[in-house]
Amino acid sequence: MKQIVIDPITRLEGHGKIHLFIKDDGSLENCYFQVPELRGFEKFCQGRPVEELCRITTRICGVCPDAHHMAAAKAADAVYGVTIPSAAFKLRSLLYDAFYAGDHTTHFFALGGPDFVCGPDAPAAERNILGVIAKVGLDAGKKVIAQRARGQRVIEIIGGKKVHPVTSLPGGLSKRISKAEQEEMIKIGDEMVEFSKFAVQVLNDIVLANKAYVDMILSDAYTHKTYNMGLVDANNKVNFYDGKVRVTGPDGKEHAKYEPKDYLEYVAEHVEPYSYLKYPYLKKVGWKGFVDGVDSGIYKATPLSRLNVADGMATPLAQAEYERYFETLTGDRTGKTPVHSTLATHWARIVELVYACESVAKMARDEEITSDKILNIPTSIVGEGVGIVEAPRGTLTHHYKTDQNGIVTEANLIVGTTNNNAPITMSIKKAAEGLIKKGSKITDGTLNRIEMAFRAYDPCFGCATHTLPGQMPLELIIHDVESGEIIESVRRN
Question: What one-character-per-residue DSSP string does 382-413 give?
Fold first, then answer.
């Protein structure tokens, strides 16, 4: 038996590696997904005033600071039992949709896109954003960069900073919006909508027009029938900032729909000894190991999942894309038949991108966002609160307990990627089993196709790792710079 290690996995946030154990006949014996890094923010939060967590938890990650800012703000609102003004609600939602418009653009064009634009078997040196620009042209690259800048500018106007926003606090916001800033955001929103049409066209021309890609997306090697999770509004439409958490089964039927404060009734966490990852699962179904199906509590919380749990999109262009997506993949444009093809997550991400851009353009025109009534100062304290938003990578939960002075005594974070740790593990193994057969030759393209099963989730391990009881084993491996041979391995347990 021999071992192949994909280390590091590329085009993700954070660090991870895949261990493949190959039998002597060339078939796969087993496969392990391992994340060796550790963050400990749940400990850092203890002893801090809860109003500071809106700014502290954004530092967990440079990719999703806006998601942590909003989840922390909502949890702090709940700790103080305060309802924020309507204008503040709209501004937080506007900032959050602008964040989505930029974040989904990054993944589709820079992280996931190279596998399709350059090709899964292209040389590794070409499978990156520069390879994408070489294929689609410099003007397309400029459009992508401009779209990212638009999202960061809206975040700066409302959140005070382009990265790591600071203006949300218990009861609302600390900064109002001027008429000039509103006009600027209206212009940005309109430009975003035009960009979303360009992104749809790129998807159509490069991915959907290629039968080999469509066959790969629909292949069994990239399919898992799990439960799905995501936030929905009062009409069961996709919503990133607010609503109830809806869970549907592999058959599309509703399993649960709950308020954020009730999440512990529905979600529990499993641990494995070989990774810092935690593996959330549906408590009322139970942990049955790394298996899918209606009897396994494993669920996904991804763009694909959010479309599966929703009854549609709240904006017209996104609704049209939603219907085209389901009609193409299931034959049912209503969305009642769920999509289980992991690689279709990239397409679902584009549907959400269209929605986010339309939503920015719509909300920027709301005259109430320039109101000076953006803060209700808390006058009492509850002492416990839960805030949930949809991070681009999955449902993000912040749960705080405080003393009567608002000092945090306990903090629990279930971040977006954490929800998907179990399905990611399963997807990697199933892709490896489908690609590595007896007598087959394992090429760089083979290993990249295994990574594609992982990359579709847009995982971010900067904030998705935990350990109990807080120890941090460390393994240092020193390689010869020329040959790559291991010179020395040192381990601290």
Answer: -SEEEEEEEETTEEEEEEEEE-TT-BEEEEEE
